[in-house]
Design brief:
α4 runs antiparallel to α5, α5 crosses α6 and α6 packs antiparallel against α7. The termini are far apart. With 250 residues, the protein is mainly α. The protein is globular, with a radius of gyration of 22 Å. It has seven helices and no strands.
Length: 250
Protein backbone atom coordinates (compact mmCIF):
# COMPACT_ATOMS: atom_id res chain seq x y z
CA UNK A 1 0.00 0.00 0.00
CA UNK A 2 2.75 2.44 0.99
CA UNK A 3 4.80 1.52 -2.08
CA UNK A 4 1.77 2.15 -4.29
CA UNK A 5 1.23 5.60 -2.74
CA UNK A 6 4.90 6.47 -3.24
CA UNK A 7 4.79 5.34 -6.87
CA UNK A 8 1.66 7.40 -7.57
CA UNK A 9 3.19 10.41 -5.80
CA UNK A 10 6.34 10.19 -7.93
CA UNK A 11 4.19 9.75 -11.01
CA UNK A 12 2.19 12.93 -10.42
CA UNK A 13 5.33 14.90 -9.59
CA UNK A 14 6.74 13.63 -12.87
CA UNK A 15 3.68 14.98 -14.72
CA UNK A 16 4.31 18.41 -13.22
CA UNK A 17 7.99 18.31 -14.22
CA UNK A 18 7.06 17.30 -17.77
CA UNK A 19 4.79 20.34 -18.02
CA UNK A 20 7.53 22.62 -16.64
CA UNK A 21 10.06 21.31 -19.17
CA UNK A 22 7.63 21.89 -22.03
CA UNK A 23 6.85 25.40 -20.79
CA UNK A 24 10.56 26.27 -20.57
CA UNK A 25 11.18 24.83 -24.02
CA UNK A 26 8.42 26.88 -25.61
CA UNK A 27 8.50 30.16 -23.65
CA UNK A 28 12.28 30.61 -23.63
CA UNK A 29 12.80 29.47 -27.19
CA UNK A 30 14.97 26.52 -26.16
CA UNK A 31 13.22 24.29 -28.68
CA UNK A 32 15.05 26.16 -31.46
CA UNK A 33 18.41 24.92 -30.20
CA UNK A 34 17.25 21.34 -29.59
CA UNK A 35 14.22 20.74 -31.87
CA UNK A 36 14.69 16.96 -31.75
CA UNK A 37 14.71 16.94 -27.97
CA UNK A 38 11.66 19.24 -27.87
CA UNK A 39 9.76 16.89 -30.18
CA UNK A 40 10.69 13.89 -28.02
CA UNK A 41 9.65 15.73 -24.84
CA UNK A 42 6.26 16.66 -26.34
CA UNK A 43 5.67 13.07 -27.48
CA UNK A 44 6.74 11.62 -24.15
CA UNK A 45 4.56 13.98 -22.12
CA UNK A 46 1.57 13.40 -24.42
CA UNK A 47 1.82 9.63 -23.98
CA UNK A 48 2.77 9.56 -20.31
CA UNK A 49 0.57 12.35 -18.95
CA UNK A 50 -2.42 12.23 -21.33
CA UNK A 51 -2.84 9.02 -23.35
CA UNK A 52 -2.02 6.41 -20.69
CA UNK A 53 -4.07 8.05 -17.87
CA UNK A 54 -6.99 8.46 -20.29
CA UNK A 55 -7.00 4.77 -21.27
CA UNK A 56 -6.44 3.75 -17.65
CA UNK A 57 -9.38 5.84 -16.44
CA UNK A 58 -11.79 4.54 -19.07
CA UNK A 59 -10.83 0.85 -19.23
CA UNK A 60 -8.96 0.02 -16.01
CA UNK A 61 -5.48 -1.31 -15.31
CA UNK A 62 -6.32 -4.96 -15.96
CA UNK A 63 -8.08 -4.32 -19.28
CA UNK A 64 -6.79 -5.56 -22.61
CA UNK A 65 -7.02 -2.03 -24.02
CA UNK A 66 -4.69 -0.63 -21.37
CA UNK A 67 -2.25 -3.50 -21.84
CA UNK A 68 -2.04 -2.86 -25.59
CA UNK A 69 -1.81 0.88 -25.05
CA UNK A 70 1.00 0.47 -22.54
CA UNK A 71 3.19 -1.83 -24.64
CA UNK A 72 2.57 0.00 -27.92
CA UNK A 73 3.31 3.38 -26.34
CA UNK A 74 6.34 1.94 -24.57
CA UNK A 75 7.69 0.70 -27.90
CA UNK A 76 6.98 4.12 -29.45
CA UNK A 77 8.83 5.92 -26.64
CA UNK A 78 11.81 3.59 -26.91
CA UNK A 79 11.93 4.10 -30.66
CA UNK A 80 11.75 7.85 -30.07
CA UNK A 81 14.63 7.59 -27.61
CA UNK A 82 16.69 5.70 -30.19
CA UNK A 83 16.08 8.45 -32.74
CA UNK A 84 16.93 11.11 -30.14
CA UNK A 85 20.22 9.36 -29.34
CA UNK A 86 20.97 9.27 -33.06
CA UNK A 87 20.37 13.02 -33.32
CA UNK A 88 22.60 13.56 -30.28
CA UNK A 89 25.35 11.59 -32.01
CA UNK A 90 24.96 13.85 -35.04
CA UNK A 91 25.14 16.96 -32.85
CA UNK A 92 28.22 15.60 -31.10
CA UNK A 93 29.89 15.31 -34.51
CA UNK A 94 29.19 18.95 -35.37
CA UNK A 95 32.89 19.87 -35.25
CA UNK A 96 33.99 16.68 -37.02
CA UNK A 97 31.32 16.15 -39.64
CA UNK A 98 33.39 13.54 -41.45
CA UNK A 99 32.69 11.13 -38.54
CA UNK A 100 28.91 11.30 -38.93
CA UNK A 101 28.51 9.12 -42.08
CA UNK A 102 30.26 6.22 -40.33
CA UNK A 103 28.22 6.67 -37.15
CA UNK A 104 25.01 6.90 -39.18
CA UNK A 105 25.83 3.58 -40.85
CA UNK A 106 26.56 1.99 -37.48
CA UNK A 107 23.30 3.25 -35.96
CA UNK A 108 21.31 2.02 -38.96
CA UNK A 109 23.01 -1.38 -38.73
CA UNK A 110 22.26 -1.60 -35.00
CA UNK A 111 18.58 -0.88 -35.60
CA UNK A 112 18.34 -3.48 -38.38
CA UNK A 113 20.16 -6.03 -36.24
CA UNK A 114 17.83 -5.45 -33.28
CA UNK A 115 14.81 -5.85 -35.55
CA UNK A 116 16.12 -9.12 -37.02
CA UNK A 117 16.97 -10.51 -33.58
CA UNK A 118 13.45 -9.68 -32.40
CA UNK A 119 11.91 -11.44 -35.40
CA UNK A 120 14.01 -14.58 -35.00
CA UNK A 121 13.47 -14.79 -31.24
CA UNK A 122 9.66 -15.04 -31.61
CA UNK A 123 9.59 -17.00 -34.88
CA UNK A 124 8.07 -20.04 -33.13
CA UNK A 125 5.10 -18.07 -31.70
CA UNK A 126 3.00 -17.56 -34.82
CA UNK A 127 -0.25 -17.35 -32.90
CA UNK A 128 0.89 -14.18 -31.14
CA UNK A 129 3.36 -12.87 -33.70
CA UNK A 130 2.52 -9.16 -33.57
CA UNK A 131 2.20 -8.89 -29.79
CA UNK A 132 5.34 -10.92 -29.11
CA UNK A 133 7.29 -8.97 -31.69
CA UNK A 134 6.35 -5.61 -30.14
CA UNK A 135 7.38 -6.71 -26.65
CA UNK A 136 10.59 -8.38 -27.81
CA UNK A 137 11.49 -5.48 -30.10
CA UNK A 138 10.92 -2.93 -27.32
CA UNK A 139 13.09 -4.85 -24.85
CA UNK A 140 15.93 -5.37 -27.30
CA UNK A 141 15.80 -1.76 -28.46
CA UNK A 142 15.73 -0.63 -24.83
CA UNK A 143 19.05 -2.33 -24.04
CA UNK A 144 20.44 -1.16 -27.38
CA UNK A 145 19.61 2.43 -26.38
CA UNK A 146 21.32 1.88 -23.02
CA UNK A 147 24.54 0.78 -24.71
CA UNK A 148 24.43 3.52 -27.36
CA UNK A 149 23.71 6.24 -24.80
CA UNK A 150 26.67 5.06 -22.71
CA UNK A 151 28.95 5.15 -25.76
CA UNK A 152 27.65 8.63 -26.58
CA UNK A 153 28.46 9.85 -23.07
CA UNK A 154 31.99 8.43 -23.31
CA UNK A 155 32.37 10.11 -26.71
CA UNK A 156 31.29 13.47 -25.27
CA UNK A 157 33.75 13.23 -22.37
CA UNK A 158 36.60 12.63 -24.83
CA UNK A 159 35.87 15.73 -26.89
CA UNK A 160 38.25 18.68 -26.67
CA UNK A 161 35.40 21.17 -26.27
CA UNK A 162 32.59 19.66 -24.22
CA UNK A 163 29.01 20.79 -24.77
CA UNK A 164 27.77 20.84 -21.17
CA UNK A 165 24.10 21.14 -22.13
CA UNK A 166 24.27 18.18 -24.51
CA UNK A 167 26.22 16.22 -21.91
CA UNK A 168 23.50 16.79 -19.28
CA UNK A 169 20.71 15.90 -21.70
CA UNK A 170 22.51 12.64 -22.46
CA UNK A 171 23.05 11.99 -18.74
CA UNK A 172 19.34 12.47 -18.09
CA UNK A 173 18.46 9.98 -20.80
CA UNK A 174 21.05 7.59 -19.37
CA UNK A 175 19.36 7.63 -15.96
CA UNK A 176 16.08 6.67 -17.64
CA UNK A 177 17.69 3.59 -19.16
CA UNK A 178 20.34 2.56 -16.62
CA UNK A 179 18.17 2.61 -13.49
CA UNK A 180 15.46 0.12 -14.57
CA UNK A 181 18.08 -2.07 -16.27
CA UNK A 182 20.10 -2.23 -13.05
CA UNK A 183 16.94 -3.01 -11.06
CA UNK A 184 16.04 -5.85 -13.42
CA UNK A 185 19.53 -7.30 -12.98
CA UNK A 186 19.24 -6.96 -9.19
CA UNK A 187 15.83 -8.67 -9.18
CA UNK A 188 17.22 -11.52 -11.26
CA UNK A 189 20.28 -11.98 -9.01
CA UNK A 190 18.48 -11.70 -5.66
CA UNK A 191 15.27 -13.51 -6.60
CA UNK A 192 12.96 -11.04 -4.87
CA UNK A 193 9.94 -12.84 -6.28
CA UNK A 194 6.51 -11.46 -5.46
CA UNK A 195 7.86 -8.02 -4.55
CA UNK A 196 9.70 -7.64 -7.87
CA UNK A 197 6.96 -5.67 -9.76
CA UNK A 198 6.60 -3.15 -6.91
CA UNK A 199 10.36 -2.60 -6.64
CA UNK A 200 10.71 -2.25 -10.41
CA UNK A 201 7.81 0.22 -10.68
CA UNK A 202 9.25 2.30 -7.84
CA UNK A 203 12.68 2.34 -9.48
CA UNK A 204 11.22 3.22 -12.89
CA UNK A 205 9.23 6.16 -11.51
CA UNK A 206 12.20 7.45 -9.51
CA UNK A 207 14.44 7.27 -12.58
CA UNK A 208 11.84 9.06 -14.71
CA UNK A 209 11.62 11.79 -12.09
CA UNK A 210 15.43 12.11 -11.98
CA UNK A 211 15.55 12.30 -15.78
CA UNK A 212 13.08 15.17 -16.02
CA UNK A 213 14.73 16.98 -13.10
CA UNK A 214 18.07 16.76 -14.92
CA UNK A 215 16.52 18.11 -18.12
CA UNK A 216 14.76 20.93 -16.27
CA UNK A 217 18.02 21.91 -14.56
CA UNK A 218 19.79 21.86 -17.92
CA UNK A 219 17.23 24.08 -19.62
CA UNK A 220 16.93 26.62 -16.78
CA UNK A 221 20.31 26.82 -15.03
CA UNK A 222 22.50 26.41 -18.11
CA UNK A 223 20.40 29.05 -19.87
CA UNK A 224 21.02 31.42 -16.96
CA UNK A 225 24.76 30.71 -17.03
CA UNK A 226 24.83 31.27 -20.79
CA UNK A 227 22.96 34.59 -20.43
CA UNK A 228 25.32 35.71 -17.65
CA UNK A 229 28.32 34.81 -19.79
CA UNK A 230 26.92 36.79 -22.72
CA UNK A 231 26.29 39.82 -20.50
CA UNK A 232 29.82 39.57 -19.11
CA UNK A 233 31.30 39.48 -22.61
CA UNK A 234 29.17 42.46 -23.67
CA UNK A 235 30.23 44.46 -20.61
CA UNK A 236 33.88 43.59 -21.20
CA UNK A 237 33.58 44.59 -24.84
CA UNK A 238 31.88 47.87 -23.93
CA UNK A 239 34.55 48.63 -21.33
CA UNK A 240 37.28 47.89 -23.86
CA UNK A 241 35.68 50.23 -26.41
CA UNK A 242 35.42 53.05 -23.85
CA UNK A 243 39.05 52.54 -22.83
CA UNK A 244 40.20 52.62 -26.45
CA UNK A 245 38.20 55.78 -27.09
CA UNK A 246 39.77 57.55 -24.11
CA UNK A 247 43.24 56.48 -25.15
CA UNK A 248 42.64 57.77 -28.65
CA UNK A 249 41.46 61.11 -27.22
CA UNK A 250 44.63 61.39 -25.17
Amino acid sequence: MIASLVVHGLQYIGYVLEVFVLVVLMTQGRWKKYPEFALFAVGYASIDAILRPFILFHYGQTSLQYRYCYWLSDAALTLGAFLLISFFFKRACAEKKDHWPLLRSILSSVFILITLISVFSISSHYHRLIGDFIVEFQQNLYFGCLVLNTLLYVMLTQMEKMDEELNLLVCGLGVQFAGPAAMMALIYLTGIGAQAPAFFELCAQACTLATWLTWLYTLICKRSEESASVREREETSAFAKVSMRRLSEV
